[in-house]
Model the fold of this input.
Amino acid sequence: MFTGIIETLGIIQEIKKDKDNVHITIDSTITNELKIDQSVAHNGICMTVIAVHNSLYTVTAIGETIKKTNISHWEAGDAVNLERAMKLGDRLDGHIVQGHVDQIGNCISVKETNGSWFYTFEYDESLENITIEKGSITVNGVSLTVVDSRKNEFSVAIIPYTYEHTNFKTFTIGTKVNLEFDVIGKYVARLYSNK
Done:
């Protein structure tokens, strides 16, 4: 379980294919605090640490994860947003994030507006995910509030701190991102669709 508050950025050092899986090695300032078997969210994808060496650690993504996320677009040198699992008893500064990506979104607009940034993303509505204005959304692991919600797209506003401390600053039109929709909204939508 995560909060969507990014701790740091990691830099992908190596991606190795192994049958349907990929092993991803990352250089990070939090590596010295990681242990094998810990969960870490990478751009919102919960993956398990399988190896730690100096400032590097490795995680594995299985075929199903690769299909549902933007991992196939990752390359060595890319920055990924990192968050370790939350501790019981800590403040929940973002929202409840499972680290289970629902689908890939596509950035269709980036606008700077006098010190903040507005991003618009579109997504495949056939998967029945929804957003609502002032509701929660996770984009590449970042907990955000929906500013504008339409049928298959939504916008978010980014403050300068978030822009500087996440990989949002690398987004351009066409960037593929991981989306995790609000867990409560998913349950409500499922209940409504079953009536």
Notes: The mean pLDDT is 93. The first strand starts at residue 8 and ends at 18. Residues 183-193 form the longest helix (11 residues). The chain is about 10% helix and 45% strand.
